[in-house]
Amino acid sequence: MGADKATLVFQGRPLAAGPLEVLRSVAGHVVVASGDGKRLGWLEAEGVEQVADPVPDAGPLSGLVAGLECARTPLVAVLAVDMPFASAAVLRLLARLWDGHDAVVPVTDAGLEPLHAVYAVAAAPLLRGELDRGERSLRRALSTRTVRRVEPEEWREADPTGRFARNLNRPEDLR
Questions:
Q1: How wide is the angle at C-alpha 39 spanned by C-alphas 15 and 45, nearest 5°?
Q2: What domains lie within the chain, and their CATH numbers?
Q3: How open is the CA angle 113-124-130, to the nearest 5 degrees?
Q4: Which of 51, 81, 118, 120 is the right S-S partner for 6, CB 3.0 to 4.6 Å?
Q5: Neighbours of 82 (CB within 10 A)
Q6: Residue 43 CA to its chain's centroid (Å)
Q7: Higher-confidence residue: 154 or 5?
Q8: Can you list the pairs that 22-27 forms with residues at least 24 positions away whose Cβ atoms lie under 8 Å?
Q9: What is the C-alpha separation between 122 and 69, in angstroms, rounded?
Q10: What pLDDT, on the 0 to 100 scale, is given for residue 101?
Q11: How far apart are alpha carbons 36 and 57 in whole angstroms?
């Protein structure tokens, strides 16, 4: 995108505001893994805690580990900053389907959607181990974990369109 996705303006507000709003509707405590733990200063005014990734510049897996390691509950909802159509209903469905798995992840035509998912805090040490061994791919790290895959026929009750999984990756996506 050529800029920090979190601060890009989408529909008149920072792109991160949409996912943040969804997380607030499903979670009592919201934490943002912001890379360095301070780059999104505007979150302070929103009363949102930032945490630093344990391994700098290591991608979403490092951010996920950061969030899981500071969690206050046994289950954590996770959203990517670039998912403006994230769905509280889908997150609630994933949480209901959790039965001790390391993660509950929807599956779309693009495959697993690990950044619109629910994770067990108990998986943090295992995912940290993957990260410490040099793994940077969240999908590959999940391939070694117990994942409850939620197929379209299950998640469609919460979001018939599948729009929740859409992310913005190119400047033209902002239009």
A1: 70
A2: 5-174 (3.90.550.10)
A3: 75
A4: 81
A5: 21
A6: 17
A7: 154
A8: 22/79, 22/86, 22/87, 22/88, 22/91, 23/77, 23/79, 25/88, 26/77, 26/88, 26/91, 26/92, 26/95, 27/73, 27/76, 27/77
A9: 9
A10: 97
A11: 9
CA distance 100 to 12: 39
Q: What is the mean pLDDT of residues 156-171?
A: 85
**Unique residue bearing structure tokens 């390691």:** 69
Judged by average pLDDT, the poorest of 37-41, 91-95, 159-163, 171-175 is 171-175
Q: What is the spatial distance between Cα 74 and Cα 161, in angstroms, rounded to a whole number?
A: 30
d(C-alpha 56, C-alpha 39), whole Å:
13
**169 contacts: CB under 8 Å, gap ≥ 6:** 1, 82
Pick left, alpha or beta for residue 2 (phi over 0 → left; psi -120 to 50 → alpha; otherwise beta). Answer: left
Give the integer Cα–Cα distance in Å for 115 and 106: 9
Q: Mark out the alpha helices in the chain (DSSP H runs).
A: 17-26, 42-45, 60-69, 88-97, 124-132, 138-142, 152-155
Relative to beta strand 116-120, strand 13-14 is: unpaired
